Amino acid sequence: MNESIEKFELELQAFLEFRYNLSAAQDSAERFNETEKATFAFVDDYLLKSPNLIAGDVEASVQRILNEFIDSRMK
User: So what's the pLDDT on residue 32?
Assistant: First the structure.
């Protein structure tokens, strides 16, 4: 289970970087909003395809990674 969560976390971090950089929005808040919305779609899709994970397994990871990502961009 831990390996599945670690793999998920790495893929989510990569997705956040990609999605944020893909945004054409000039306003940082709008870019964060677009990225956050896309992240929830990514998580839903990932969980549907994952035989080992459910939402409760990754909920804390998603919130932590999103917060860390936003904090790192705000500096």
Answer: 93
Distance CA 20, CA 69 (A): 10
pLDDT tens column, 23-74: 999 998 999 999 999 999 999 999 999 999 999 999 999 999 999 999 998 8
CA distance linking residue 24 with residue 58, whole number of Å: 29
Q: How far is CA 18 from CA 8, 48, 60, in A?
A: 15, 21, 21
Q: How many helices (H) and strands (E) does the chain have?
A: 3, 0
Rounded CA-CA distance 55/45 in Å is: 11
Report the pLDDT value the prediction gives residue 74, as an integer from 0 to 100.
Answer: 85
| CA–CA distance, 39 with 19 (Å, rounded to integer) | 8
